[in-house]
Automatic annotation (TrEMBL):
Keywords, sorted A to Z: Magnesium, Metal-binding, Methyltransferase, Transferase
Binding positions for Mg(2+) per the UniProt entry: D113
Protein's recorded name: Putative 4-hydroxy-4-methyl-2-oxoglutarate aldolase
Native organism taxonomy: Bacteria, Pseudomonadati, Pseudomonadota, Betaproteobacteria, Burkholderiales
Native species: Orrella dioscoreae
GO biological process: methylation
Amino acid sequence: MSNLLSDPAWATLATAEISDALDFLRLPGCALGVHRVAGPAAIVGPAYTVRFAPVDPDRKGTVGDYIDEVPEGAVIVLDNAGLPDCTVWGGILSRLARHKRIAGTVIHGVCRDIAEAEACGYPLYSRGHTMRTGKDRVQVEAVQVPVSLGHVRVCPGDLITADADGVVVVPQARAGDVLRKALATQAAEARILADVLAGSTIADARRRHGYHTLQRGDDA
């Protein structure tokens, strides 16, 4: 992981602040429709990507063998095309991932065994959950390739951040720009709040600290 992606400052930022920075820089990144379903409400780490496809009838499909190769601290990103009819993650994987100190799992699709993920404290984000297994219905097509979280492209090593508001993807190549802008936004909003609590009107505080340019540049 690059020094930028491992910067502890990422863990101080909410997805809303990172989203605002992405908007300012005119970058995509918000994985709309993917929400927390289990475990702690905040994760951050580099993406380890997995793409699924319908099972090949000539061989049995595999769903979770890739986990042996996932490094500590990574966020597993699973792309099952957003399909709601079968799962690509379950209780054994949650418990093993927690044991391996994987940061969390984000799914463009659905998962199951929510109670097990909650019980072991494993962060899990997806489009929903169901009981129906993916075994012999889908198989791993490729690992560590570009995948999709809805309309957002995720490449191996991109930074994934998630909290109670949802999931945001930061492209590796723009991580420095996004981090600097997100921290600046965080600082400006803190100054606005301090002024308001000290007696300023919110309109004056916002004007003083450039609130209306935080998400959009002056030329936007």
